[in-house]
Backbone:
């Protein structure tokens, strides 16, 4: 790998989310909102204030399309014109789930909250189109960790606490009608389950992280039944805090067991798994022939060559540590570190 550019921060220490790459810029969460950097040179383009105060962003991602970038953060929600950085609208905090992943189409921004709701806001003015409570009356910390869109459906992944201590936890994959928020169906995991991150949609399957039972789970979107689930073995398991990455028919997932796992998406069968020096892995990206992983609480970049099946630690950060997930555009990886924003080239 080679470092293409590095742009330092001026007033913060990293961001835990997934950048967006759109309209020639890289978009990241910063104190108060969103910042944009030129994708080719790293030059700072603009910085937009979405919420007041000096709170650092904890949004799981920036959503971007059609010249608009949106963020759903615990401290506030809003959308910004990518070309200029002009704020289109902002709204008071709906307590969006920290590290939760939002999604957008041509009409609305969709996101989950720490108050067990899914919210849709109009892209034009931020007006709430609908709010759906997926666990009415629960006071024990139910959260919607991420949403994905397909056709006329919103798919939401949840972690629901059923008692005060979190000793009884359930995860759900919930399908909602995109136009109204009406619940269509749900598939609920066993006791001590929790689905973190946005569902990965692969054909007629939704792949969710069961971070509490240490596995990936594939759910058939027609039958609403579990098709396969990875198992826990002494020599390995998958506990992923963020969604796996789908390339063709292969799922790649870093795990807290310090390994990178490659599985067939249709059957869940293992293709390979390789140990890294990353420690407890928190997020995964695929760039060129490399699977890039970042430790759970931040740390050095690690890479697995999925052609040669060897792991390495690229020396492209020069003493810095990554804090967030990695976005990929072509063979370029974009990442946030403790000191700033990076663009890295990947071998094909």
Residues:
């Amino acid at each position: 790998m080679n470092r293409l550019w590095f742009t330092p921060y001026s007033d913060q220490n990293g961001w835990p989310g997934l950048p967006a790459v759109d309209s020639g810029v890289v978009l990241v969460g910063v104190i108060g909102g969103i910042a944009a950097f030129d994708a080719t040179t790293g030059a700072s383009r603009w910085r937009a204030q979405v919420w007041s105060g000096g709170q650092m962003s904890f949004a799981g991602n920036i959503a971007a399309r059609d010249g608009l970038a949106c963020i759903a953060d615990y401290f506030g929600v809003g959308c910004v014109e990518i070309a200029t950085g002009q704020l289109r609208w902002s709204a008071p905090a709906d307590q969006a789930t920290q590290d939760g992943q939002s999604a957008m189409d041509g009409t609305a921004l969709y996101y989950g909250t720490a108050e067990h709701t899914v919210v849709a806001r109009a892209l034009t003015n931020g007006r709430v189109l609908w709010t759906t409570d997926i666990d009415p009356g629960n006071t024990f910390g139910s959260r919607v960790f991420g949403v994905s869109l397909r056709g006329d459906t919103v798919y939401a992944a949840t972690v629901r606490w059923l008692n005060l201590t979190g000793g009884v936890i359930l995860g759900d994959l919930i399908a909602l009608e995109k136009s109204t928020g009406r619940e269509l169906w749900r598939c609920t995991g066993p006791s001590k389950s929790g689905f973190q991150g946005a569902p990965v949609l692969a054909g007629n399957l939704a792949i969710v992280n069961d971070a509490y039972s240490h596995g990936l789970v594939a759910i058939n979107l027609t039958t609403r039944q579990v098709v396969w689930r990875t198992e826990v073995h002494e020599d390995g398991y998958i506990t992923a805090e963020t969604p796996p990455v789908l390339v063709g028919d292969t799922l790649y997932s870093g795990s807290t067991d310090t390994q990178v796992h490659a599985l067939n998406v249709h059957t869940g069968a293992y293709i390979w798994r390789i140990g890294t020096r990353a420690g407890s892995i928190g997020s995964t990206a695929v760039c060129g022939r490399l699977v890039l992983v970042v430790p759970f609480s931040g740390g050095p970049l690690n890479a697995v060559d999925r052609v040669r099946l060897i792991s390495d630690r690229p020396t492209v950060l020069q003493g810095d540590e990554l804090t967030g997930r990695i976005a990929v555009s072509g063979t370029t990886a974009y990442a946030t570190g403790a000191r700033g924003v990076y663009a890295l080239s990947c071998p094909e």
